């Protein structure tokens, strides 16, 4: 777990980098021009050479084979979503054919809610929190309306007391007899709080409630064991910590006990392989997570997943998680040592067992400080109203990066450099 025996000064950062077993993987990723320090990998991971090679390979196969690409290598590209799904499954310790690469996070939430939310007179509510990424709510609200019901009648919201963290006890208390389905984040995108998914799942199942998770802000950074967690479903994007590129196809997990359950949104790639090209007008549902696919998979959005998974498998997720915890602990240490006099604090958990992969740096001038950081060749991430997310990615960020960022923030604080910038929000922050 994370080190707590830090000391100030650049020398320790350099020493930690020398001891880092993952340092060799930095060269497998393209760094930004001009020596920029990239701290936004929890929004969009950097491109890797492995991802590039895999994408170019698929392009070459298409160029040479055309439609025949479906048949080469024993149908490898026809089964691409299943093959990559089974490799992704190792990152959450899911079972064989419980994970499929498909769609995007929002479409997958539509698919999963349409499948698992089957309201009755007694059980009809969907339990959520008020801190999850908004797209999850948009999808759920849409599904409620599609069934001709009122959002305010169906949605049960556990509200955070402080707007930062979720109280798991309150979530459990809200699992009443009228709740049918629960959807929660694994890690909160603002505060990096990591929920105890195993506990929450067990409590839901005790009450006969189905439960699923949005893993967007944890997969590829946090070690999950879905054999133990035993949730009913989950989904995630693959462009953050996984670093599979903008708009990369997403992941979708369905617990094998639900194989055979009628899918909410049926499509021809969810049909059983043996009858798929018979093109009958009766859906012959595939017997595993393949069934939750809809249309033809986007191979150009899937190929980078194949490439970057080579890196994850070489590095080992446990090592990645350990370094992530240590990097974020080191950042917090440096913030405590250097930035408090200038109005900085952080609102993420300090407990390793409750923290995801980023530090939520807080300042009343967070937005303008982000603009100043970019002028100093640092790429952070801003989240309303006052959070600067700093995500040191274990595979390509260094301890020296963390040290330099805090030095830059100290200069910005000392000189109040944010005063040079407008507070008017840009389109992408």
Automatic annotation (TrEMBL):
Catalyzes the cleavage of L-kynurenine (L-Kyn) and L-3-hydroxykynurenine (L-3OHKyn) into anthranilic acid (AA) and 3-hydroxyanthranilic acid (3-OHAA), respectively. HAMAP family: Kynureninase. Gene3D superfamilies: Aspartate Aminotransferase, domain 1, Type I PLP-dependent aspartate aminotransferase-like (Major domain). Pyridoxal 5'-phosphate binds at residues 105-106, 133-136, 214, 217, 239, 268, 296. It is an enzyme of class 3 (hydrolase). Pathway: Cofactor biosynthesis; NAD(+) biosynthesis; quinolinate from L-kynurenine: step 2/3; Amino-acid degradation; L-kynurenine degradation; L-alanine and anthranilate from L-kynurenine: step 1/1. The modification N6-(pyridoxal phosphate)lysine is found at residue 240. Coiled coil: none annotated. One of its GO terms (molecular function) is kynureninase activity. Belongs to the kynureninase family. Keywords: Hydrolase, Pyridine nucleotide biosynthesis, Pyridoxal phosphate. It catalyses: L-kynurenine + H2O = anthranilate + L-alanine + H(+); 3-hydroxy-L-kynurenine + H2O = 3-hydroxyanthranilate + L-alanine + H(+). Its cofactor is pyridoxal 5'-phosphate. GO terms for cellular component: cytoplasm. Homodimer. It comes from Sphingobacterium humi. Its EC number is 3.7.1.3. This is Kynureninase.
